[in-house]
Amino acid sequence: MPRFAAGVVKFQNEVYPENKDLFHELDRGQAPEALFITCSDSRIETAMITQTAPGELFICRNAGNIVPPPSTHTGGMSASIEFAVAALKVPHIVVCGHTQCGAMKGAMNPEGLDKLPYVRDWLSYSRGAVEIVEELGAGLSEDEKMTLLLRQNVILQLQHLRSHPSVARRLAKGDVELHGWVYDIKTGAVDAYDPATGDFCPVDVRYAAEMKRLAADCA
Q1: 133-170, pLDDT tens digit by residue?
Q2: How distant, in Å, are the alpha carbons of 30, 33, 52, 85, 165 from that of 134?
Q3: What is the DSSP letter of 29?
Q4: CA-based nearest residue to 145, from 197, 186, 109
Q5: Which residue, 29, 7, 5, is CA-closest to 16?
Q6: What is the 8-class DSSP label of residue 101?
């Protein structure tokens, strides 16, 4: 903890003064460009991966980057999604999985979670993705099965997202876009889901046209 406290002092003495205008602007409110749903894993640093500044991402994190379907029970994820989508009007929602995900390993082997009953129950929201791996995984290596699960889980959570009333209303109006990503911790690669092909491809390929327009606007 002393190291963290020293970090706060460094932030106050060095980082904050250099970004004082930004923080004064943020004090007046927030208008994030995206709701970013990812795993609680300590190795996932959203700002570093996306090169974003404070105020640009509304971040929700949980074990397995899961989006529970809407229900009569109000949970933290559902409330946060509703706030980001209905109140903050974010134009983009990203569900980002990652390699070496302990939650997904647990989802594949729920019998090993007897001592973690809350985790086991939470991961039931990934059961549909596990079933796909069980159906299609014959002949695949364990690494290939995990890659398939990571991707199928992202696709499944996107399906859950679409069923949330606030998201469904925005999708019907056409003013919000959903994105599915998988981040590779070892290589830094990010693959993005392409609904046109039903597959994942490198993020620079998936968003090539948009990135080209952005570069032109910044030129």
Answers
A1: 999 989 999 999 999 999 999 999 999 999 999 999 99
A2: 43, 37, 37, 34, 31
A3: -
A4: 109
A5: 7
A6: -
Cβ atoms of residues 202 and 192 within 8 Å: yes
Tally of CB atoms within 10 A around 124: 13
Q: Say how far residue 97 (Cα) sits from the centre of its chain.
A: 6
User: Which pLDDT score, from 0 to 100, does residue 57 have?
Assistant: 98
Q: Is the dihedral of CA 91, 200, 38, 67 positive or negative?
A: positive
Contact by Cβ (8 Å): 85, 176: yes
Q: Enumerate domains of the chain plus CATH numbers.
A: 33-218 (3.40.1050.10)
Q: How confident is the model at residue 86 (pLDDT cuts 50, 70, 90)?
A: very high
Q: What is the DSSP letter of 51?
A: T
If one counts every other C-beta atom within 10 angstroms of the C-beta of residue 55, the result is 15
- Calculate the CA dihedral of residues 110, 116, 122, 123 and round it to 10 degrees: -20
Handedness of CA 7, 8, 13, 15 (dihedral sign): positive
Query: Distance between CA atoms of 10 and 194, rounded to whole angstroms?
Result: 42
